[in-house]
Amino acid sequence: MTRDTGRRQADAVACTGLAHAFDDTSAVDGLDLTVRPGEVFGLLGPNGAGKTTAIRCITTLLPVPAGMVRVFGHDAAGDRMAVRRLLGYVPQQLSADAGLTGRENVALFARVFDVPRRERAERVAQALAAVDLADAADRLAATYSGGMVRRLELAQALVSAPRLLILDEPTIGLDPIARTGVWEHIGAVRAATGMTVLVTTHYMDEADQYCDRVALMHRGRIRALGTPAELRERLGARRRAAPGALPTLEDVFRDVAGSGLDDEAGDFRDVRSTRRTARRVG
Ligand SMILES: Nc1ncnc2c1ncn2[C@@H]1O[C@H](COP(=O)(O)OP(=O)(O)OP(=O)(O)O)[C@@H](O)[C@H]1O
Ligand SMILES: [Mg+2]
C-alpha cells in the first residue's frame, strides 16, 4: 500500500461530471462519484441505470467524452496505461475462455498485465489458490460450474495485484453458497493487500453486508449515497409511519428507482433500456 506522507492520499476513483452517450441514448449523465482508498464501494441501480457504462469509462475501455475520471490521481483520458496498470476488472459478461484450463486463463492475464516473466508461474498459482481453484487449475474452464468460472475470473483480475479491483455483477446467477464464497475470497485478498473494491450488484443483501458505502444510480446519475445503514436510516426517518420497522436497502432501492424522477416518457425508456441490455447479454 502507498503511504500517506502528510498529503491527502488521492481518491481511488474520482469522477466529476462524467457523461457518456450511445447515439441518442444518454447512459451516464453527469456522474459525480468518489471512491476512497481501501473501501468496498457498491454501485447499485436498476437495469439500464448506466453502471456498466460508468465502469467501462473508469477502466478506460470507453472514452471519457465529457467530464473527468481519475484513478489514484491518474487521468483516465490522458494516461490510460497508468490507469490500466492499477486495476483489475471482472466484466459483467463472461471473460474466461472455455477452451483453456483455469491456469492458462490466468496466465494469459498475467502476460497481458505485464507480470514479470520470472514471477508469472508463482503469481498465477497464488491467484488460483486465493480463489480456491488450485485443485481444478489444470481442467478446462468448460468443465467448471458457474461459481467456479466467476472465481476464475476473479483470479484473472487479481493476478496483476491491482490496487483497485472493479467487479461488475460478480455474483450474478450464483447459488447463495457460491455467492458467499466469492465475497469471502474478495474479503481475504483485501485484508491481505488493502486493495480498493468497486462493485456493482443487484443483490441488496450483499451490498448491505459487504459494502462500506453504496451509491444508488438511476438514469445516469447518483441519486443517493452513504453507508447502507445511513441510507436505511434516512429513509426510515422520512417514513415515520412505521416505527420500529427499519427499511431495508431494497426499500431504499425501490424508493430511488421507482421515484419517476423526471419525465413521463420514463416507462418507455426503461423498457427500451432493459431490452437493449438483454440483447447485449444474450
Ligand atoms: N454498447 C451500447 N450500445 C448502445 N447502447 C448501450 C450500449 N451499452 C449500454 N447502452 C445503453 O446505455 C444505458 C445504460 O446501460 P448500462 O449497461 O450502462 O446499464 P447498467 O446500469 O449496467 O444495467 P444492468 O443493471 O442491466 O447491467 C442503457 O440504456 C443501455 O441500453
Ligand atoms: Mg451493467
UniProtKB/TrEMBL annotation:
InterPro entries: AAA+_ATPase, ABC_transporter-like_ATP-bd, P-loop_NTPase. Keywords: ATP-binding, Nucleotide-binding. SUPFAM superfamilies: P-loop containing nucleoside triphosphate hydrolases. It comes from the Bacteria. Residues 13-244 form the ABC transporter domain. PANTHER family: LINEARMYCIN RESISTANCE ATP-BINDING PROTEIN LNRL. This is ABC transporter ATP-binding protein. It comes from Streptomyces lomondensis.
